[in-house]
User: Fold this.
Amino acid sequence: MVNHLPCVLADPQDAAGREALGLATDLGGYAIMIGGTNGAHLTSFSLVDVLSHGRACGMLNPYWTVFFAPAIQQPLRMIGRIYRDAGYTAADVDRLSGRDLGVAVAEAMIAFEQDAGFPTRLADVPGFTADHIARALAAAKNPQLKSKLENMPVAMTADMVDAYMGPVLEAAATGDLDLIRNTN
Assistant:
């Protein structure tokens, strides 16, 4: 995705790039089937009136990356290397850990989104309002979604939604990664 999306955006007829993007979507599907989804997926449904589900997930992923960082350091280093090799960060992701690693990878993800011409903050999305955040927080507290909260890399309960999910969504609205609170 990181290496081929810019090529396909520059030349929509790039067959090799389009095939690579198709394979990336297949891998995403496998990841969901094997490991489940996370906070970006869960909260994206409250944004479908202003963003497609996929764009919402993509935009929210950097912010959730910072929140999940202490629990997913090895995968973040691998992803960070991909972004570094593609020129989206100069951070030495192999020497970073915890939140610092998450911030470095999130900043690289945001740089990639900017390069692709995608919005990087909810505030940049036409029609977005604070009501979208309130809707996402209310939906996450629905008892039917308890398993979704528990399956995230940093498990949450409904009682934690306002304290932790709220700041993630506020950060996504403003672009301010410093707003995100980690549980540890």
